[in-house]
Amino acid sequence: MTITAKDIMHKTTLVSSKMSVKDAAKLMDKKMIGSILCEKEKDVLGILTERDILRKVIAKGLNPDKTDACDIMTPMPMTVDVDTDITKISEIFDKHNIRRLPVTKKGKIVGILTTRDVAKSLAYLYARRQRFLTELPKSRK
User: How distant is the alpha carbon of residue 44 from its chain centre?
Assistant: First the structure.
C-alpha cells in the first residue's frame, strides 16, 4: 500500500499578506492550526508559522498589531506534488529540517502536510506491516 500526499494532506488557510500578525495569530488559534499561507493578488508568497510569530515578533519585541504577516513569513517554501510518496515526503522534511510542506496539483497549492501527518501515517504502515508479519503461518516465515 502506497500512501501519497493527497491521502494525508489537509486544507490550507490563505490570508492577505497585509493581515497583521495579531489577526493571523487569532485566526490560527480559532482554527487550531499552526500555520497559514500568505497571498497577494492570488499569488502565495510564503508561510507564516507559530514559530515565525514567536521568534520574529514576540522574542524581538515587535508590535503584532503593527507588523504585517508578510513581513515575518517564510518565503514560499518547497512544495510537493499530490502524488508524492510518503517516504519521499519524509526525506524532504528531514533533509531540509522543515515541519510543513504545501502540496500542489498542476502547480496550484491544494493542501498542506505536517511532520505529524507523515509520522502518523508511517506509524500506521509500520503497525500494519508488523501485524501482517505476525499473522503469517510459521511455514511461510
Answer: 14
